[in-house]
Write a structure and sequence with these properties.
40% helix, five-stranded parallel β-sheet, 13 strands, globular, alpha/beta
């Protein structure tokens, strides 16, 4: 049995689409091969589906530019599953409108409020793919707004600091950046969201000021904690005001899908992402998959859109490292979804089983 567990190819293919493209190629070569697919995410886009909630609730919330947008949250074992990108994802904002000085995380608060109304008091929050860099202020303002607007003790309690801290929040991300400094949210991530050099400095000052004020008020400072800079500082807001704990998003997804149990019946695992290099080995999904599969003695093939540091990837233990764009026509756009799916399907036919048979 072959397990397929691809991360999304950002701006190109979702995890599900990548899995299906690979499966198509494998079946074209071996029509009767047994394949099982697992949708995956490290906390960003696709996290909600990858966590396989018991039910999904669809709703309307505000995007990062405060426009209404369709979104969803999940409930699994009584816990609210929140994918930040569902509300304030960068992909929801047209490139010419992206502005992290204006973008707000208000919609994340709206998702939490709706899950709270469904009885959720524990949350798993996937951080990633956000258009924001507001340190979670928008989310906190949303919670306060609902506390003031609704004449119900629940909402007054919700914004009370002690009750906020009674909510159990687990953050899912592969980001270990602090809130501020050269590796902080503004300097590392804001340029990817449309910020120029001047805006980066403004965002850095804004984050440092907020963290200083919060620390004076509460007597402790979470701004330098690993992961505080995730999702434009949303990680910091959850840590500072809700005592949230950070976990690897990939580990959470693998556990939710009972990946270790599935490995007991697998002969091969194929994983991949948009681009792989030494950074892949620092906690990204393919490396987490590799670590689990190595413990079970199952070989892992890495198939990605761009490959750098091939020797390091092979040295880490991947049995094969395949670039799906090798030998492909230069006049095609590799980021076009149909092109990428076709290339991944073709690459899957080049994968070799450990016994030497071509797949």
């Amino acid at each position: 049995m072959i397990l397929l567990i691809f991360d999304s190819f950002k701006g190109c293919m979702s995890s599900q689409e990548a899995n299906e493209a690979c499966a198509k190629g494998l079946r074209a070569q071996h029509g009767d091969v047994e394949i099982k697919q697992i949708e995956a995410s490290d906390g960003g886009e696709g996290f909600l589906r990858a966590m396989r909630p018991d039910r999904v609730e669809h709703c309307h919330v505000h995007d990062a530019m405060m426009r209404w947008t369709d979104a969803a949250y999940g409930i699994k074992d009584g816990k609210g599953i929140i994918e930040v990108a569902q509300a304030v994802g960068l992909d929801k904002i047209e490139p010419e409108l992206r502005n992290p000085l204006v973008a707000t995380s208000y919609g994340v608060g709206e998702l939490m409020v709706q899950a709270w109304e469904q009885g959720c008091r524990e949350f798993i929050v996937g951080l990633g793919g956000s258009a924001t860099s507001d340190c979670g202020l928008g989310m906190l303002r949303c919670l306060r707004h609902h506390a003031q607007q609704r004449l119900h003790q629940m909402w007054y309690d919700l914004f009370d600091t002690s009750v906020l801290k009674s909510i159990r929040v687990t953050l899912a991300s592969d980001v270990d950046n602090p809130l501020t400094g050269p590796r902080g949210a503004a300097h590392v991530f804001a340029p990817q969201k449309g910020a120029d050099d001047r805006q980066v400095e403004l965002l850095e000052r804004r984050a440092a000021t907020f963290a200083t004020m919060a620390a004076k008020h509460q007597g402790y400072d979470m701004s330098q904690r690993p992961g505080a800079g995730a999702a434009g500082g949303l990680g910091y807001a959850f840590m500072q005001f809700m005592d949230a704990q950070m976990e690897s998003g990939a580990e959470l997804v693998l556990r939710s899908n009972r990946f270790d149990d599935m490995l007991q019946h697998a002969d091969l695992v194929i994983t991949g992402e948009g681009a792989s290099d030494t950074q892949t080995l620092m906690g990204k999904l393919p490396s987490i998959v590799l670590r689990h599969a190595q413990k079970a003695g199952v070989p892992v093939v890495l198939a990605s859109g761009r490959i750098e540091d091939r020797d390091a990837l092979l040295g880490a233990g991947f049995s094969q490292v395949v670039c799906i764009n090798d030998g492909q026509p230069a006049d095609e756009n590799p980021l076009d979804k149909e092109v990428a799916q076709k290339r991944l399907a073709v690459a899957a036919q080049r994968v070799v089983l450990v016994d030497g048979h071509d797949m």
